[in-house]
Amino acid sequence: MKPIARTALPAAAIIALAAMVAGTAPDARAAAAAGAPIYSIPVARMKTAGAGDTTDTLAPMKGDVMLVVNVASKCGFTKQYTELEAINRKYAPRGLRVIGFPCNDFGGQEPGTEEEIVTFCRTNYDVTFPLYAKLHTKGPEQSPLFKYLTQGVEGLTGEVKWNFEKFLVSRDGKVVARFPSKVKPDSPELVAAIETELAKGAK
Fold first, then answer.
1. Phi and psi for 142 in degrees, rounded to 5?
2. pLDDT by residue (tens digit) across 1-49?
3. What is the pTM assigned to this prediction?
4. Is there a catalytic annotation at residue 103?
5. Considering only Cβ atoms within 10 Å of each terminal Cβ, which end of the chain, N or C, has fewer?
6. Per DSSP, which regions of 73-165 are E strands?
7. Could you say which of 75, 103, 121, 193 is catalytic?
8. How is domain 11-199 classified at the architecture level of CATH?
9. Mapping DSSP to helix (H, G, I), strand (E, B) and coil, where does residue 157 land?
């Protein structure tokens, strides 16, 4: 299956995005209103690392290609953790960052605590790529990040349908491709898209 057609973020979409995030955290609204890229949207880091502020952004990923995935531990697609970790290890030296966001929106398939999720991923799939705190990908509590990913870019819009949907983000923070759950992380079309983006502005 080919990814949905690519397109740039027009000014109208930026304005619409600012309206959509009304009611979210003030800094998220400000980022959207200013047309700031994905790096300015607040995300919650897992608390398993210890004390301290758990609100963060994806700013450290700026300049890298990101593959953002909503993950779950009890899904028929959970075995995709294997391929996600494989491409993470293969392409990280070239600037790919695989990022997992656990989500319990679909069939209650991610019921675990942060500690349970981390233990499951490390024990069963030797996951080393970063996992962030659980969030909602849709509905009234949809995270600002997934509002940006699913509604902020014309041509790549639409609600997340299930666990393990994949969003490819370019080095300059634009969503350039989107793949449904059934497209495996190591599928030819996804790998080709990753390699294309990595080749742009390679470090």
1. -55, 135
2. 444 444 444 433 333 333 333 333 334 434 433 334 799 999 988 876 4
3. 0.79
4. no
5. C
6. 96-102
7. 75
8. 3-Layer(aba) Sandwich (3.40)
9. coil
H helix or E strand, kind and range, residue 70: strand 65-71
Structure tokens at 71: 């993950």
3-state secondary structure of 191: helix
Indicate the pLDDT class of residue 202, thresholds 50, 70 and 90.
low
Dihedral angle at the C-alpha atoms of 43, 47, 48, 52, nearest 10 degrees? 110
* Domain positions in the chain: 11-199
Q: Is the Cβ–Cβ distance between 32 and 17 less than 8 Å?
A: yes
Structure tokens at 151: 């509604």
Furthest C-alpha separation in the chain: 45
Structure tokens at 79: 């075995």
Q: Are 164 and 72 in contact (CB under 8 A)?
A: yes
Are 186 and 85 in contact by the 8 Å Cβ rule? The answer is no
In sequence order, the β-bridge partners of residue 166 are: 69, 179
Q: Pull the structure tokens for residue 72.
A: 């779950």
